[in-house]
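lol forgot to send this yesterday, sorry. struct tokens for the thing we talked abt
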């Protein structure tokens, strides 16, 4: 009797467990049905609205499209499905690349901003602005004929500038100017006797001789150019 009663109780417990499971499954199915019903009830107006909108849009373009064209387009999309997939993969790779490079680009942009700020603080932009004004003044001050003549003589001008910028020439001019600046401040004896006394100085005589030689060269060059012009 005890064994039978115990077996009966086990069966009753098992049956109770199964009934509870079935009841839970029934409740779950009912909830899912209600959710589907609510979803259908919510989506139906949107679907109707989208359908009506699609009909209106298709009515506007029905003169320009044909069902055969749509079918050919659909078939072409199906044939190029792999290509479209590859294109999407490439777009995803590009997006990943942009996401990876963005921090580097931000860092580079920050460095460029800092560099530009440093250049502005050191006066590069102001110098460039002044240089542009200088170029503008040069352009507006010279005619096309002047520019052509400048182009014809640019080699001669550069050679002259090259000769004038030799270290010994610059040093000589600088030392001469410094000495002349000091001598100008001193009193000068312009009397005939004072001039005669200065002529007794070998340095004065050498300076006069060099000056006369330079004047002779200038006169010779002027005479040659006059003959060429005639």
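and heres what i got for the seq, position by position
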């Amino acid at each position: 009797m005890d064994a039978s009663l115990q077996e009966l109780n086990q069966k009753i417990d098992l049956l109770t467990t199964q009934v509870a499971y079935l009841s839970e499954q029934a409740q779950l199915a009912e909830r899912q049905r209600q959710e589907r019903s609510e979803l259908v009830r919510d989506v139906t107006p949107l679907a109707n609205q989208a359908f009506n909108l699609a009909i209106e849009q298709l009515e506007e373009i029905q003169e320009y499209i044909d069902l055969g064209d749509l079918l050919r387009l659909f078939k072409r999309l199906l044939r190029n499905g792999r290509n479209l997939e590859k294109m999407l993969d490439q777009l995803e790779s590009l997006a990943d690349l942009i996401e990876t490079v963005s921090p580097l680009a931000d860092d580079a942009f920050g460095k460029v901003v800092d560099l530009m700020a440093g250049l502005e603080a050191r006066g590069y932009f102001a110098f460039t602005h002044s240089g542009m004004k200088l170029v503008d003044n040069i352009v507006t001050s010279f005619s096309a004929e002047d520019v052509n003549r400048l182009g014809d003589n640019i080699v001669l001008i550069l050679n002259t500038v090259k000769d004038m910028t030799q270290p010994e020439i610059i040093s000589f001019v600088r030392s001469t100017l410094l000495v002349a600046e000091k001598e100008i401040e001193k009193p000068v004896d312009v009397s005939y006797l004072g001039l005669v006394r200065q002529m007794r100085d070998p340095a004065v005589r050498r300076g006069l001789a060099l000056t006369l030689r330079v004047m002779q060269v200038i006169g010779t060059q002027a005479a040659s150019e006059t003959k060429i012009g005639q």
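The mean pLDDT is 79. anyway ping me if u want another try
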